[in-house]
Amino acid sequence: MAIHDDQSKTCVVLGGRSFIGRCLVVRLLTIGNWIVRIADSAQSLQLDPSESKCDSPLNRALSTGRASYAHVDVRHKSTIINVIEGSEVLFYMDDIDSCNQDFYFAYSVIVQGAKNVINACRRCKVKRLIYNSTADVVLDNSHDMCSGNETFLYSSKFKDLYSELKAQAEAYVLLANDIDGLLTCAIRPSNVFGPGDPVLLPSLIEVAKSGWAKFIIGSDQTISDFTYVENVAHALICAEAALTSHMLTVSGKVFFITNFQPTRSWQFALCMLEGLGYYRPIIKLPAVVVRLIVFLIKWMHLNINSSDLKHVLVRNAIQLMSHTRTYNCSAAELNIQYSPIVSLDDGITLTVKSFTHLANDLPSTRLGDLIEQSKIEELLGSGEVADILLWRDERRSFISFLGVAFLYYWFCVRERRIVSSTAQLLLIIIVVLFGYARISPKVYECARLSSKMSVCSISRTLPCFEVSEMSMRSFVRTVANIWNEVGHVARSLAEGSNWSLFFKVVFAIYLFKLLMVNNFPTSMGVGLGLSFVFFLIYEQYDVEIDGIVGIIYEIMKQCIVYVTDHLPIPTPSPLYINTD
Fold first, then answer.
1. Is the pTM of this model over 0.85?
2. Is 298 a catalytic residue?
3. Of residues 9, 77, 166, 253, which has the active-site annotation?
4. Which of 100, 206, 338, 532 has the greatest number of C-beta atoms within 10 Å?
């Protein structure tokens, strides 16, 4: 929305180097009738490569004096006063990264910082204060939000610390309206994304890199409103213009801001992730199960600190995909004449282009790439065994399956001794071969012709049963390595200090006893039968199965870590010293 004014107005963009602040600064400079003071917590202005170009709006404005930079610490009112003195308008954006610190620091920056900004504006006679809030101030973790509007109260149970502190800061800004000539309003954008996004897209990428990438979390019918960052900057400027012309309908008010295009949350996420080369999940996983698993992992990591940002990003993405969150922006459309200037599809395209450095470059995970050899085929050796178990030739695989079933019946189900069963089987084989040779003319003719061959020629055609020296060395080396590894494990167990190894050995021995000793025939039959089914299924759904196994392994690993951390550390018993 263009502002019709012959004279340039001076404004301060507090938080001008934040995600939204950068976009707002560029838009103000592009409009052309603003003198922009950029204020942020950094000591000096560090330009990005795109901003360092001679033709960039910020670089040109800095060189002509239409833009300037100043360091400010919102925890100290004096630094704010020095920056905003003589300005008419203050656009205020606090930094979401401040919540990665402790509660006191976050509170002092967001809430106490808002109080300091308000007091500084009143003292410096700033006319208009526009605060960038968030739609999350009316959300909790358990309820959907359908067509939320400005009449909704603040949440009684905020979904995170940042939302709670933003709600307090927003309330202070709105209460300060029309005091000492200061007019205030706030906007609440929903799920802001765009180039430089520090939260939404990194959360989705973190999920895509983790074991959750194989699942659609919750219902794929959940709908959310998203807002491209340039539309947020546009809304801030629209709010300032409306605050100047129609004060009664804007001052002291708050407005929800979206792209006016509610869309399925998973559809939005997949458009982003597929553009960066990640898999499309196809298995649905109930959101309650995911939340239970995340809660379990979080409970086992009671000492979570700021280095566990990955868990926070995954939790944010799960919350986004688990609930419907849509908003009614008719108030913003009516009162501040806001409408999106960048469509959702164009915003997604521009965002994906800016995050190519986070694209998944592994060729095995690029969509549309053809993989000549599957993982399970490579594991099986890419030979006849793989062809049989993966049913490359259905006739041969079916015959092999019948043969394995017959052997299982003959040796396991009939409950006879192994020697007698083997002898009977050999006898049957000899009888069948002899009868087949006598009946088949072709086989009989071959046998008659071969009887005329000399003994030497027969000896040359017979296979030579010998083991090469290289194969024998490899076999002995393998046996020696296994023996050394067993000795190492036994020595570690004897020391009594490695609880994790102890549980692994106990579990392996118990599983061997359960399957191979107590239920050997049944385990053998189930294993042989599944071998003709499991490998075929795994080849078709290897990504999904790997995801399930990865999640189960992570849970078991966390359980073992939790148990071992709470076990007592063994102390060596004191040596007995004979003093006699």
1. no
2. no
3. 166
4. 338
